[in-house]
Amino acid sequence: MKLPHGRLDKSRVVTDPRDTLADVLDRELTGYAVFESQETLLLDGEGRGVMTFTDGVPVLVYHTGTDRGGPPALADLAVPGPYHVSLYTLDAADLESAHEAADLRVPPGMPAERLGGDPALADSTRRAAPDERLSAMGDGDATAPDDGTADQSAVEAFLDDAEKIEAIKQQARSEARERAQEWDF
Amino acid sequence: MVEVFAVASGKGGTGKTTSTVALGMALSDRYDVTVVDADTGMANLLFHAGLSDAETTLHDVLADEAPVEAATYDRFGLTVVPCGTSLDGFRDADPDRLRDVVAALAEDTDIILLDSPPALDSRTSVLPIVLADRIVVVLQPTIPAISDGLKVQEYATTYDTDVAGLLFNKVRESESIEQVSEKTERYFDGPTLAAVPESERAREARRAGRPLLAHAPECEAATAYRAAAESLTVRDGAAADAADRFQSAVIPESL
Ligand SMILES: Nc1ncnc2c1ncn2[C@@H]1O[C@H](COP(=O)(O)OP(=O)(O)O)[C@@H](O)[C@H]1O
Ligand SMILES: [Mg+2]
């Protein structure tokens, strides 16, 4: 994915990517976010996730570690936080050519659904999305029969990745042991 | 006998408080149940149990300004220990006193449910899980909720607390919950207790300041909570040493 350099808007550590998605939607940001997992031990912790937005609504997702785009890249990003997130703004015109990459596109509500785990935020994102993005992609629940099942299969695909889940568990166990000493129970 | 459960999940908003009160009420047919708002930084159990004007709360007890009995209320067939919502109350509270609170309550009840904070990032937020005998993990059928739930389980088991089971909540009709719960169970040490549907009744109940099982006892969500309570086999902890058990609950030596 090729993107022009944007103007840095915010850079910080968030525990829940939902907060970033809500903030971007709220401010109708046009530009992109770079997500970097702090959990370096995790399999997909290597590499960064890039998500572009038009007026606060997600358009493209790409993961540099796995070189995958679109919905699979969202799965690569779905590891427990915290994440380091940098937000950059761009003019809509500068994103036009990047946004032609149809294979990197995600339905508007999917990041809030899968990364944020927040169906309500996904609903408000879909409401903010232009009509052609909703009809073209089939995103969401009753209004677009397509996506309820697609989203479900993302959860199942996640659950089928035994190796990734074992890595999440192992990471949590070592964190729990470290913290126990720090907290002096 | 007494068994202490922490109702936990890594994320906020999954329905821990709703579930704590609903499970408590469902279990109260068979047991004497006490529910405690152990989410002392973001307390909201009081709003679910019609106790928003409670004078004395867990904050006062943790600040050593009141005995536990002064912060217990009989509501909806439960003994409820609500927590206050003020920042001052949180600041003056000594979270470690929760051990003594649990120990004192344990003398006089069959089941204690601890409504737990949605995070694992501080000593205070992890304490309910350390104190509990087992956790009930509240999940939504989404990737982040399940991966955060896994994290909670691993913290719990590392601290010698077992898993009683999983509660899927806010399940939408479009979701094939059977497959998801079957796959999820492969990675958890406890069974799925129930799948609670996304329910307008639950939101109404919260707005009305009443527990779901009092507001709409016959709705699908309430029925699911009763099924969850049915499938929970409560273990008999030895009553005699209950107090001792919670006062000295620590992370196992082997760490
Ligand atoms: N099954 C459900 N269907 C619909 N809304 C629910 C359900 N369970 C809980 N809620 C609502 O979700 C919100 C968060 O629930 P709450 O129990 O306070 O979560 P937590 O304690 O995990 O933060 C509340 O407004 C509650 O009424
Ligand atoms: Mg709560």
TrEMBL record, chain A:
Residue stretches of biased makeup (Low complexity): 138-151
Region: Disordered, residue numbers: 106-154
Superkingdom per UniProt: Archaea
Record-annotated DUF8054 domain positions: 2-185
Bias kind Basic and acidic residues: ranges: 124-134
Pfam families: DUF8054
UniProt name for this protein: DUF8054 domain-containing protein
Species of origin: Haloarcula argentinensis
UniProtKB/TrEMBL annotation, chain B:
Signal peptide positions (record): none
InterPro entries the record matches: CobQ/CobB/MinD/ParA_Nub-bd_dom, P-loop_NTPase, ParA/MinD_ATPase
Example GO BP: negative regulation of cell division
GO molecular function per UniProt: ATP binding; ATP hydrolysis activity
Domain CobQ/CobB/MinD/ParA nucleotide binding: 6-211
Source organism superkingdom: Archaea
Gene3D superfamilies: P-loop containing nucleotide triphosphate hydrolases
UniProt GO cellular component terms: cytoplasmic side of plasma membrane; cytosol
PANTHER family: ATPASE INVOLVED IN CHROMOSOME PARTITIONING, PARA_MIND FAMILY, SEPTUM SITE-DETERMINING PROTEIN MIND HOMOLOG, CHLOROPLASTIC-RELATED
UniProt protein name: AAA family ATPase
Lineage of origin: Archaea, Methanobacteriati, Methanobacteriota, Stenosarchaea group, Halobacteria
